[in-house]
Amino acid sequence: MAMNYNAKDEVDGGPPGAPGGAAKNRRPDNTAFKQQRLPAWQPILTAGTVLPTFFIIGLIFIPIGIGIFVTSNNIREIEIDYTGTEPSSPCNKCLFPNATPCFCTINFTLEQSFEGNVFMYYGLSNFYQNHRRYVKSRDDSQLNGDASALLNPSKECEPYRRNEDKPIAPCGAIANSMFNDTLELFLISNESQSTPIPLQRKGIAWWTDKNVKFRNPPGGKDLEERFKGTTKPVNWVKPVYMLDSDPNNSGFINEDFIVWMRTAALPTFRKLYRLIERRNDLHPTLPAGQYYLNITYNYPVHSFDGRKRMILSTISWMGGKNPFLGIAYITIGSISFLLGVVLLVINHKYRNSSNTADITI
Amino acid sequence: METKMALNYQGKSQKRSAVEKSINAFLIVYLFILLTKAAVCTTLKYVWQSNPNNDEPWYNQKTQKERETLKVLKMFTDFLSFMVLFNFIIPVSMYVTVEMQKFLGSFFISWDKDFYDEEIHEGALVNTSDLNEELGQVDYVFTDKTGTLTENSMEFIECCIDGHKYRGAAQEAEGLSETDGPLTYFDKADKNREELFLRALCLCHTVETKTNDVVDAATESTELTYISSSPDEIALVKGAKKYGFTFVGNQNGQMKVENQRKEIEVYELLHTLNFDSVRRRMSVIVKNQAGDIILFCKGADSAVFPRVQNHEIELTKAHVERNAMDGYRTLCVAFKEIAPDDYERINRQLIEAKMALQDREEKMERVFDDIETNMNLIGATAVEDRLQDQAAETIEALHAAGLKVWVLTGDKMETAKSTCYACRLFQTNTELLELTTKTIEESERKEDRLHELLIEYRKKLLHDFPKSTRSLKKAWTEHQEYGLIIDGSTLSLILNSSQDSGSHNYKSIFLQICMKCTAVLCCRMAPLQKAQIVRMVKNLKGSPITLSIGDGANDVSMILESHVGIGIKGKEGRQAARNSDYSVPKFKHLKKLLLAHGHLYYVRIAHLVQYFFYKNLCFILPQFLYQFFCGFSQQPLYDAAYLTMYNICFTSLPILAYSLLEQHINIDTLTSDPRLYMKISGNAMLQLGPFLYWTFLAAFEGTVFFFGTYFLFQTSSLEENAKVYGNWTFGTIVFTVLVFTVTLKLALDTRFWTWINHFVIWGSLAFYVFFSFFWGGIIWPFLKQQRMYFVFAQMLSSVSTWLAIILLIFISLFPEILLIVLKNVKRRSARVHHLISSSA
User: Across residues A104-122, what is the average pLDDT?
Assistant: First the structure.
């Protein structure tokens, strides 16, 4: 009841209406805003204005699509699966746990030469780097070189936070599961001889990651000393400061590590592993011919039905081989163009014909 | 509960608009979607996890605590986590925006200078902002007559004394003097009777005087101002003044009247038998200087005629009826001399009744009834109430807009009818169906006759109209129009007859008739009957939206009862305006209020509601789809900042600006073409069809966003330096496409681009870009993770991403653009058809 009375009171007490002293001028302001007469652009989307848009979009999209498609088709890409689940695969022997370290070699042929810079990726399948528990299992402060976080990593890193009463550096599931196969590429120049292809380890991570986001902890010159008081991740063979002989590529700023730490969006993913720089002479970077891939097989994927691949790819202005974008552009452009034509015909018919054409759309 | 306050309180439920009801229905659907999504994800999660390698692969082990948690508990927390992850599908911020839109939007009504009235120096007043959009949904308009359709500024037109007509008294006070001047009356009544009549007019009222001038000025020259609750009385007193009898004032129960000979006559006011709507008359008992006690009574003809013993009723009656046909308000005047002995008795009875503690009103009524008998009829008055400016145009526009206009009045049928003709509620070709005491009392048994009439009318109407009710509104223009007239007593006969066996379906037959009539006139209504009618219509099938407009205290009940109550700031006080939802100075303002403001508000808010559901569905759908690719692990697709800011900053202002400023059709066009109002009737924009359209559009767009990006990521790298993107870039691409698409979709819908729209639409997009750069540009010291660091900038460094974003935005908007074109072609074809059919 009380509520009702309030409502009633409100109604009665609402307007200040003082009928006697209406001396004040209550005339509303005659402004464009208050009278809802602001100057406005009132687009009328008629067939006349939209039809050209269809054509223009068609005319723009189709060439772009063709451009992308051609570019994408010119990209050379080869993918070699070395999981070794097939018994015939040379790496099949490495599936058994007792065979560590395990080496295997896979031969392959490049039908066409790869020109320009060539990039080597490793690809994993059915590996859920985007699992929530996994994604958050890291400590960015520690990776940023924060001294206190180094010795006291974030709780998010559990259960990869401490080992044998020492803080793990780098902590967390992501770091712990870092990809540790070694891939080496050789060109078979003739029957007996083979030349190793030089693989660059640097320049594969985002510049900002390498220089800002990831930093080694502060301290003396010696990297090992800076990581004092920490222990290596459980699954690692070497501690983090021994990832590379080059001090500018070791510790947290090791590029392989940084690449790994950027968690992939989908369970099937590729990560940049090495780059093969273009040679200065006119020879192609990777001439057509016989190659073999030397694999130090450490990384187990068999247990979760995963697969491992090595990918060699050239690059263009639009990145790697990606037929989707080109096809999508061509399709949408064509649809748009066709619709433009159809609508134009309909439009034209209505404008000119005087007989009732029954067109149902 | 027996307090006066509680008894007088008319239960006033909170008024809620049809749009709000739709919102609630949509909300239930979306809640269901949310629950389904969460349930599906939880189920699939456990199906997926049944493989231990999926549940806990070597690279992603659980903590000891996680392992030990009870499975049921885990499932429950998983379900809740999914709910949290998908909760954005429920547009919580919509409520804030809707409230803001309603509050700010209502200002446009009070700001409108077209509603400003020069006479009372006031504009429209908005008492509630909850019902703005309801103004665009009205199906029935109930209007009061006096003071609403008419000015309620009464003018004494003519009178009749003993059957002799006096007219044109406006010239001078000599109107009745025999000496000179043109005789404006045809023949004269007895001089004594004339004076008696004029004295009656001067005495039988509750008018009070107010002298404007200072006290020391000569009393004769003082300008008198009359104040009364009823404008009729003032008109009568002023009328009497014109004929030479001036009411000077009432002091200490002494009424002073200046007669034609400029003499002051003093009467002692003994009793006032106040007016009430049941008796429909009032009386005063006065004692003149000679000591005679006289009762003067004036009232409606039906209330007075049965109580006079005079044999000259017939003449007066004819006169009254003629006046009523002309649309004048008529009152009859009677008197009675009371012998002193009788007066003693009457006085006692009156005082006793006034003092009674119980049933006072009944007792008073009985005494009044007793006193007001055996009177002598002197004459009748006719007062004109002018129609309001543009009342007819307004009614015509409302009709054209498909609204049904009902006039509810307390006046006589003839008066009301002529007013209705004058304001074009009834056209000359409208066939009138009458259900009044007149038509019914011809027969002996009222109910039988009523039954007969009802059946007859129904037959007539059903025969005339096609069965489909949908085309009804359009049918009006082509078919014969019907108008219904009903009076209060017949109405109560219909409504209260339910006890009788076999006749309880009167009401339903009556309603069927009502629904088929374009215009209904209900006369001789008591205030509560007005509310009763409104309630009856409100509860019709399909619950039509009702609007009541009135100016007086007797309209308050109907204003409160209807969906939208509009008060007119009239002469009968402010009660109606105070109890209303909106108040306007004049009836003509209703046209713009409904056709322009109501229409725009409805379109704005309906679009706002649909848009909010739409943008939240296509916001959260990619996140749902992502669960299928991240092992149902509740991994959010977007960064937390994006999740929070989406509704608050990135997409809120454009829709708010749209919902305040949009004019898809110009205000001028809306007011000049009332048929546009029909387009949105029946909550057209929030029906299942449009809702499904928006929902499917959102689902389509969400799918495009996600899978477009998904296919884009089926490559080794998107950058020319072969560097690889992670999951946060994936989410950011989806989010960027989302924000742009959703905003551009609104831009496509906007038909009225003021600088504000430009500012907020492009500003929001710019702000998004700026914020993203900023958010990713710094290593935030207070954050535990730096996952967005340079993600946005890196993303924009890739040409492929740009191309993909543009492509995906375009694909998402493509159906919308296509629809616009198709609609356009359709409209054009309709026009062509129309041209051909009209030329044929």
Answer: 93
8 Å CB contact between B336 and B297? yes
**CA B111, CA B118: separation in Å to the nearest integer?**
15
A333 chain-B contacts, CB cut-off 8 A = none
Contact status, residue B451 vs residue B506, Cβ threshold 8 Å: yes
For residues A269-273, give the mean pLDDT: 95
Nearby residues of B48 by Cβ (< 8 Å), 6 or more positions away? B54, B631, B632
Give the gyration radius of chain A's Cα atoms: 33
Query: In angstroms, rounded to a whole number, what is the distance separating the alpha carbons of residues B340 and B287?
Result: 10
pLDDT at site A2: 35
Q: Which residues of chain B have pLDDT under 70?
A: 1-14, 168-189, 211-223, 277, 310-312, 440-447, 463-479, 497-504, 571-572, 831-840
Q: How far apart are CA A322 and CA B78, in angstroms?
A: 36
Nearest-neighbour CA in chain A from B772: distance (Å): 16
Q: Give the per-residue pLDDT at B167.
A: 73
How many Cα atoms occupy the beta-carbon half-sphere of A223 within 13 Å?
Answer: 19
Average pLDDT, chain A: 85
Beta bridge partners of A103: A296
A309, with CB counted inside 10 A (0-12, 13-18, 19+), is middle
The pLDDT, as a whole number, for residue A158 is 87
Is 50 exceeded by the pLDDT of residue A8? no
In this predicted structure, the answer to whether residue A338 has a pLDDT above a threshold of 50 is: yes
Residue A191 C-alpha, separation from nearest chain B C-alpha, in angstroms: 33
Q: Looking at residues A255-284, what average pLDDT do you find? A: 92
CA-closest candidate to residue A17, choices B698, B576, B66, B541: B576
CA distances from A320 to A117, A193, A313, B45, B732 (A): 12, 32, 7, 33, 20
CA distance B741 to B760: 15
CB B163 within 8 A of CB B319: yes
Q: Which site among A33, A128, A161, A234 would you substitute to test the B interface, given the most B Cβ atoms closer than 10 Å to its Cβ?
A: A128
Contact B59 A30 (CB under 8 A): no
- A156·B811 Cβ contact <8 A: no
In this predicted complex, what is the ipTM? 0.91
Residue A166, pLDDT > 80, answer yes
Q: What is the DSSP string of B512-529?
A: HHHHH-SEEEEES--HHH
* Closest CA relative to residue B524, chosen from B670, B671, B411: B411
The pLDDT score that the predictor gives to residue A327 is 95
Q: Which residues pair with B299 in a beta bridge?
A: B281, B332
Beta strands, E only, B168-259: 208-211, 224-227, 246-251, 254-258
- Whose tokens are 């914020």? That residue is B771
DSSP output for B729-772: HHHHHHHHHHHHHHHHHHHHH---B-HHHHHHHHHHHHHHHHHH
Closest among B633, B515, B533 to B550, alpha carbons compared: B533
Burial B640-673 (b: 16+ CB within 10 A, else e): ebbbebbbeebbbbbbbbbbbbbbebbbeebbee
Q: How many CB atoms neighbour CB A288 within 10 A?
A: 13
Q: Which helix (H) or strand (E) holds A146?
A: none
User: Cβ–Cβ of B715/A320 closer than 8 Å?
Assistant: yes
pLDDT in tens, A293-324: 999 999 999 889 999 999 999 999 989 998 99
Asked if residue B316 lies in contact with residue B379, where contact means CB atoms within 8 angstroms, the answer is: yes
- Does residue A334 sit at the B interface (CB-CB below 8 Å)? no
The predicted pLDDT at position B90 comes to 92
Q: What is the pLDDT of residue B444?
A: 58
What was the pLDDT predicted at B658? Answer: 95
Alpha-carbon distances of B138 from A26, B8, B141, B153, rounded to whole Å = 29, 29, 7, 29
